Structures
1.
Amino acid sequence: MSKIKDLQRLLETKEISCVELTEKYLDNIERLNKTINAYVRVTAEEALETARKVDERIAAGEKLMPLEGIPMSLKDNISTKGIETTCCSRMLQGYYPIYDATVWETLKKQNAILLGKTNMDEFAMGSSCETSIYGVTLNPNNTDHVAGGSSGGAAASVAGNMAVFGIGSDTGGSIRQPASFCGLVGLKPTYGTVSRYGLIAYASSLDQIGPITGSVEDAAIIYDCLSSYDPKDSTSVGSRTTTHDKLNNSVKGMKIGIIDEFFDGINRDVKSSLEEAIKVYEDAGAQILHFKMPGLNAVLPVYFIIACAEASSNLGRYDGIRYGHKTDTYKDIDEMIRKTRNEGFGKEVQRRILLGTYALSSGQYDAYYKKAQNLRYSIIRDFKKIFESCDIILTPSVPVTAYKKGEALIDPIEIYMMDICTIPANIAGLPAVSVPCGFDKNKLPVGMQLIGNNFEDYKVLNAAYQFEKLTKGSYLSPEVEI
Amino acid sequence: MNYELVAGLETHVELSTKTKIFCQCTTEFGGDPNTHCCPICLGMPGTLPKLNKKVVEYAVKAGLATNCKIRNVSKMDRKNYTYPDLPKAYQISQFDQPICYDGYIKLSSGKNIRINRIHIEEDAGKLIHERGDTYIDYNRGGVPLVEIVTEPDFRSVDEVLEYLEKLRLIMKYIGVSDVKMQEGSLRCDVNISVRKKGEDRLGTRTEIKNMNSLNFIAKAMEYEFERHVDILESGGVIEQETRRYDSDLNITESMRDKEDVDDYRYFRDPDLVNIIVTEEEISKLRGELPQLPDEKMDIFINEYGLPREDAELLIKYKKIAEYFEEASRDIKNKKLVSNYILSQVFRRMPTDSGKEECAVSLPPKYFGDLISLLENKKINSSMASQALEKMLDTGKPVSEFISQKDMEGIDEGTLREICQRAVAENKEAVESYLGGKEKAFGAIIGYIMKVTKGKADPQKAGDIVKEIIKSS
Amino acid sequence: MITREEVLHIAKIAKLYVKDEEMDQLIQDMSKIIDYADAIKAVSRDSDVDFDNINNIANAFNEDLVLPSYRRDEILMNREGGENGYFLVRKSQRG
Ligand SMILES: [Mg+2]
Ligand SMILES: [Zn+2]
């Protein structure tokens, strides 16, 4: 069910040239992006140039590398040398990085075809792309709804058949939530497996780069390409094992943990889809185990404090001096910096910077940041304990299906709560994948999340792949016509 | 009323690693503006720091050489503040777990200046203000520093100056820094307070920031001491604040115009990982430390019998001290070697930096050979001086300038003849000597040495002269 | 409830301005979120272990080997108005 492999077969048998393939995707973008707004920048020239190179290599009889010739997209917070990279913020409009992110370097070496940079919430702070200066990204499944966020553009580029895969980033669910909203597979790898070098930081200890794809197998292929030790990233470890070769392990005897708290207060349609999915596993011989995790209600505030604190520091560098937005009029340097930041950052970003500054400020540090770090440690321990008796944990990806346009801006706390299922994996650094497992009454996709122990990305992908196979791919987005 | 000065020092020492602390740009001083920069030291979006291993080793060595304890597990923290010379708006430093702590440096008086901590951090870029505009060069941004923080143990400017000299020398000896003050590789913040003599309580302190000359430090401290005393004497209150020293006006002035909000929001840098230094590594680094200036001083004075002043002069320049040690390896009378270095060698290196460099083409072994001849009385001092000049000019061994014949001295027959002549031509001196004036004997020997151009052995000549006088 | 003065202090060190007309809404939003975050104060802490990093990595080091720096025109590429190779911030700028 791998689109990557299917397309490479077409390329290798010369049923289609890479230039033709790329043009088809560029045509789709041309046609659909006006409505969907998945891309904030299309890199047609670069794409076609690489495509020609691939065609030459095919003509010369070279064997294709795993991602060679595959049209794809990058989230706009991944540094691309010479290609404007803005984090969808006014602050970085007109910023042209002078270096490549490690993931982009890897993809480039593989001759993957970059079609463009995708929309996201400003500095990845949001869950609907509605904080992007380029406006919301719509859900290709139903354009009354959003594609989700913050990697909404990445997901929509794949769901709208405007890319074979999208590379996104996930700090609190930003890959898995839009994947879930769009009926796609979204993988947040184990923290440290994919290099963060060149990922414009939101919250360094939580951020991970990962793929959004139309199938589990594609996610596994991409993971295997991107997960390697990067000497430029001090927190990098690389993967301990490949995943693609382990997808076919049977789920028979697999121990799947259900943490009851994750199912509290979720949407009814989501719940019934999940229950069916659990039954699929059970019928296939998996063992379902139930756990309690009373610490779960601390996860959200812990996340929020850590993310905002780190963000407040990470975003301090935008001062108008070396790159990015700079205000026109000011009376001294201090005013220059403050005005620049006021004009450059949107409201949500400013709010999180202020909250993070508060959590770290003298007098508050112990009560908030230090306490949060401490609780983070105990949350990690809780998960370790659960993984002593199960292989993976199954949860909803999001308690709801894709929001209606405009719906997400209402109440900050309520919106933050929607990330409750995805956040724990970031807090604990665990690998987690969202796979489509059903539809709600409006035919909007429902996602199931599988969480694994550290470095057991292969287990979550294996379980996800088996689910896809057992359900004959019936929840995936329809096959692309080329 | 009698006031006492109480001061503590925070000294920033630039480490002499080849590359910056978190990237691999060069640390070379100078260079055209912004030519020693990369996306990492410029803090460009998405870049990540990675710690230079040498920085840790140097910091540990600095700690060991100043009697510090070394923390086996330490971490890097972010110190958040916005200033144009700081491209990430935070300085990566160490907050609550500095790599070295609890050390001291002993002053010549025997008093210990306690070192509270030594931590690792990155330097900022350089700002040039011109007509209110700010020009920024980030070449220095990311150069590694150690910050050495003392307890408020200083009671006089002299103690501060001696401490700084010692600290500088130690850093230099252990090879972790060039400590070139004029290039800003050693910079000081001084905390000052005053109190009435005999009081225990500390007064309110002010901090004078960022001085890189011993002379300015002394002047600034004196000024600030007087200022505190004046305020207190006139019934005023000292305000705790940061001040800068204006060397043109010789005053200190408040830096409040910077509108500093002191809330650095320190927290562990999530982009960096723990630094673990094992006991094995610590002892390995300890083993790599050279003999420190204080130990050398002890040996030079107590074993080699050098006067303190001479020893200090030699030790002040590490390479000179080492040259001396090499040259005097086989010499019993070490002072002989020291004398020639302090006079003839030093004359060729008029500046401090010249001595620092100690560019002598003459191998110390050759130097020693020459002194050995002198010590064994094969040659006299004037011969030695002349030969040394030529040797220093050419780098060639003593044999090039003093022949075997020159060194052979005088055979007994000739010496006896000369002695007889000496007795004959110095009748008065002989009379005086016989009359009990020992001194007069010296004049006779002096005559012989002069005639033989110093080649005669004065001991032997003396014996012969006495023999002649007795038998006459 | 966060106070107006606290917000102003925080804004100052965060190098942001808060417009008067936005102050009330901001105080409200921030207070709501802070109240929510206060939930963690109630959670008892069962250990004092300081979280360092997910994978307990230590000693990730660069060797002390110089690599070429970037060309200055690249370094300055994203900022016009540099002079003689410096980044430049004018004292003030009128519209
Ligand atoms: Mg410091
Ligand atoms: Zn650099």
2.
Amino acid sequence: MATRHAENLDTTGDGAAHCLTQVCAAALKAFAVVPSLAERIMLPERLVRSTSSSVCGQWLFGVAIGVTGLVLSSPAAAALQAHHQLNGPTCVPCRIDVAREAVLGDDAAGIVGQQFTIHRDAHGRYLVSHLENADEIVVFDSRGRFLRTVGRRGRGPGEFRGINWITGSDSAVFVFDGLNQTITQYTSAFELRGVSALPGQVTGAVVLSNHIIVLNANIMTRDRAGYALHVLDDRGNIVKSLDGSAEGFRTDFAYMTMRRLARAGAKSFWSAPVSAYRFAEYDVAGGVRRDFERNVDWFKPYVSRGIVADPKVPPQPMLKDIHVDRDGLLWVIVNVADPAWHKAVVPDPIGPTGYGWNGNWNQFFDTIVEVIDPASAQVIASRRLDQCLWRFAGPNIAASYKPPDGAEIVPRLELWRLALFQPSTHKRR
Amino acid sequence: MRRTRMRFALALAASLVAAVGMTSREHAAEAQTWLLSTSFSDFGGCVDCWICDPGHGAADHGDPLSQYAEGHGLHSCSGWTSCFEHGVCGGEFASAERLNALRGRLDDMRKAILARDAETLRGVLDPTGNPRIVWVQERAAIQVIGCGERVLIHLPISSSINLGELRSTESLQHP
């Protein structure tokens, strides 16, 4: 997995390069090096770009030749190659049970909509915001009853214009506003703690501890552009950016930097791209601890500018979200084309292709839910659902959007509890 | 310092592993192929929004799964309507002629990178344009920068291109 990292102020690389240059200058006197061979060393980006450090690279290669065999056979090399192909499903009697947990939405203050963000807080309440009403947070209790709203339209503290993500910890709620370009922090009682600036569009966030938040965001600044992941400190400052693609970044490829995130531990997290079935565990220092890939016919990696409404082109699969349960199992939800997907594509004279969607994503997509044991690199169970699950709302709870229909006059968010049934003989020890 | 040494040791080990199968030049060329192989001729949709201000998404009929629309606020501007039509561009950008000119320029850039043609690349750079096309030495990349200093495109440049001819166009320290 090609990844690059940017420290805050981007100085660490300079320091290392300078240091190496000094060392290499002396070392070059002792080593005869074939320059063209140095190209075979893939040094970190900043070193490769530096003329002086390319000299260093030559020296390093000279040294490397002597130790290559040693390194390749060492445990360190094995760790660096911790890439796993996922197999399965391996547990035949295991199954994924799905039960409706709650329904959110009413025709008054608790109205919900599609393209939503949702977070289940430590009290079991659901905090929701959606595209059509992105200037407030709508709060429901664990049964789906409307409780209150938080925030109002504006640019001041506690005011929003374009909420695009909500997440939280046991004691705090974090609200990301892409229009105001802010992070607003509340206590769990919705007392305003503070607001900080964030120059980007957040497409995912996970709280690792009270002091560390990891974002998936397009930070469109010159020093951060192209990095998919950003680590924030407790004051909202970006202390590190990582997962920078060697390919670069184009805004017309919407999925390039989009990632799905899940907490793995106090200093580590899972990250998955949306257009390939793979994921990796990162530590906050930027290292990839292990990564996994699943090779299945129904989800081949692809490059795309986004989903297009075209009655002749079925939608590509999309990895919608990941979640780690209390047993350390990783849950994955993938949207795949519904067998009757074309029924959701309708003429739309103002759409770029002349077509649009009828708003019923459940007709456009099915969902494949899978449970993975990272320890054994096995897919334990898999199940296809007719609903289009949008994302995880909380522990083992996923949300889908239900548009108004003949029976319902307002949109709803349906919450589904996902549970793994494992016969005792198949449980992990 | 210890962390730096550790990082370096890991980087070296990773480099050695990778070096067995592929040269850095081959790797860079391969890595950029899929991104650079796609023309900018369709670069548009939201581009005028991006070039103006991504915070000013305006239309009501955009792609609901575009990067600005999937629960990210009022950014669904990828339909026919645009920021320009809604008057939020402040006249800075978005005429069809300028958009087409930009597309052509970006395609020239793309082809020059693929061809490792530093001379053409130098001609594509436009540090005073809207958007600006600049070489950012610290990132070893060409960046296309819209209004609000937002980076629309970031393309690392293979070390096989003669970087000396591109240096000092833009600096993070001295924008």
3.
Amino acid sequence: MVALRGPGKSLLLASAAGWIVMAWLVTDHRFQHSHFTALWLAMILAMAPPLLLREIGRLWRTSLRRLRHLTIGSFLSGYVGVWLLAGAVLSSLFVWVSVDSSRIAVVVAVIALWQCSPARQRCLNACHRAPALRLFGTTAQWDSLRYGIATGCYCAASCGPVMLLVLLATDYHLVVMGLVAVMITFERYLPARRPAWRLPMLRGRSIDWSGYDYGERRSLKYAP
Amino acid sequence: MTRVRKDVWGLGPGWNDTLLWYAKAVRTLQSRPVTDHTSWRFLAAIHGMHPTVWRQFGIISANTPLPTPVLQRRFWNQCQHQSWYFLPWHRGYLAALEEIVREAIITASGPDDWALPYWNYSDASQPNARVIPDAFDLPTLPDGSDNPLRVERRFGDGTTPIELDPSFVSLDALEDDVFAGGDSDIPPGFGGPETVFHHGPESDTTNGGLESLPHNVIHSAIGGVAPGGNANDWRALGLMSMPITAALDPIFWLHHANIDRLWNAWLRDTQEEHVNPDETTWLDGPADRQFVMPRSGQGEWTFTARDVLDRTAPPLDYRYDDEAVPVPVVERRGDRRMRRLGAGVGAGRTREREDVVGSRKTPEPIGASDGPVRVTGSTSASIQLDTSSTRIMRGNLERAAAAASRPEPARVFLKLEGIRGTSDAAIYNVYIGLPLNADPADHRDRLAGTISLFGVSAASDPNGPTAGSGINQVLEITEIVDALHLSGDDLNHLDVRFVPATAAAAGADFSIGRLSVFKLGE
């Protein structure tokens, strides 16, 4: 509920608009590579806002009132910029993969491994981290832009590969996209956890010891 | 039968029946294996446990059989901090321990009306109030056997007996208007911010008023750091300094009984109309994980906040021997403020109630440090304030002073965002607007608050539940800002000084992501 205060409702409305555009593009034009950019932008609009409730809410609450929209704009520029680049990479990969079923099988296996990997968990954890953002002038916008780029990178790393599956599901594009959206949004709001090999969204059999990494280092230094 | 929890110093010095039976029961519980739900170690692990730390401290060995992972997940690591569940969860936790201890006492032919005593360290009428009860320091029981209440890893400030600084037992939190924290945790609220089950799963965590001071500060002050030890090395910390070991120290339970008593005292302040939250998310929460405690048999007790509101009914069934409001209200915060600003006495009353009960105002940042601040020993930092915001604020301060009918000017809060480090024992006094080279001890009116870093190491782990975001602290600085304004300060900058409150804290090394100033109101 806290996340819905401030700009939360606007984000959900933006998402709804994205899904409507997405549905229109898919049903009226069928998925074709030439429409990729439009589809990709609609997909970002549909899927990203629920993922960014925490980040946008934080920017809204911690920025100067007169700079709020600018600060959020800086963040979104960085975030969307990263996802546009990710789209270009995925689009090329899609063209290369989709011509051969054996390539598809290999890519699906690699994506499945990635979903279970500790490296991906590190990316998901990084999405929880609250940054220290400066408040005034261009430094505030620069920090916000960097925050957007960092969030976009961690987001693309953790969820980008599975988006390739969405692209590959040409006949059931919207359905698969909906399922993936539910999955990654749910996963986004799960607590951070220690990186390990495990099935995504499941707890695993071992205890997930939380807390400072007591076993490895005596102390940490935090450079300002 | 409603049992009575009594002031431990009121029971007299040395061994009295209540503490003697407590000691014998603690020994019985300590002798039980950690796999036993009613053992001392199992109960302590409900608050928090980390196998590496427990092994290092000799609480378990590498070969000690532990409960199954399923049981550990269900019972262990439940403690609620930086959350509006802090008070109800600890009330249920105390009740569970009290029942199990009483059962052990009855089995040993002790009194069936035994109740946990509380340590009222803020009692100004008791000269020894701030000294740890001496039974916790004596080497033996009257029969010459080892004293289980005495803990080697209770370092305090390095001297014996441990005596708390007067600033550590402040009851300023009782002046908090509302239970739950506001937006951005401004104000943080008496009972803490609205959260889900909160053993640290969210990235932004702020202590509630009572939790921050005296609760956290006393944890760090009693646990402390081993003499000559590195304040930044967890191996040198006392049991009470970290949530994952705190409940192993028998003094923990007397400390928390007092915190529980203060919750009740806050509610009894009828003049202030203090009430618990009425949201079902609090009353019937948390929705994402149940609070569960072992019973004295093999059973268990699941509870919500609603289940622990009536203390005099089963299964809680206790009261305190002193439930009076510890600090009778002489002058309300709002009235005090308006009087100091020069407005009529009583002018603040209506305004403040409107703030609390009426539509909640949204806090707004008006200043911040230019980047993170690293604190090592006495450290100064500067906060730049937004000139257009402070111009409006100054104008409203002047108008409020001139006309009693005007709304109360904005309240001002300092937020320490993203405190990260490894020294849970650090305690710092935070001053605002100290004159250059001034001795802080001569300027208590500039003391914004006393903070402890209890829980900071777990919150700083990049792969831990808070993803390394650290903890937040919020201190109200309205009266200091008012005083600066009245002294002619233009309020374009605020100087902040962090001063170690203990010798151990001087060696602490931690960072604060951002020092922010928020205003609440106009």
